[in-house]
Amino acid sequence: MNEKQKAKIIIKTLNKIYPKAPVPLKSKNTFTLLISVLLSAQCTDVNVNNVTKDIYPKYNKPEHFVKLGRKKN
Fold first, then answer.
1. CB-based burial, 15-41: b 16+ in 10 Å, e otherwise
2. Is residue 73 in a domain?
3. pTM of the predicted model, to two decimals?
4. In terms of residue numbers, what domain contains 34?
5. Secondary structure class of 59 (helix, strand, coil)
6. Which of 11, 49, 58, 69 is deepest in the core (most CB within 10 A)?
7. Over its length of 73 residues, how does the chain's per-residue pLDDT go in tens digits?
């Protein structure tokens, strides 16, 4: 059995065990969910939702964040 086949079995099993697993993080799309998950590793889901509610309406694609650039020290 290769890695892809193992992954399919794992996903099928998880979907059976957790058919409707709630996601407490609010997101507009897959990209914003990824960003929220990364942020939630640093603080609570409630804090992430509070911060991102003002960010995601305007910035919700990788291109939007790239255009922001980096803060210079």
1. eeeeeeeeeebebeeebbeebbeebbe
2. no
3. 0.64
4. 3-68
5. coil
6. 49
7. 899 999 999 999 999 999 888 889 999 999 999 999 999 988 999 999 999 999 999 999 999 989 988 887 7
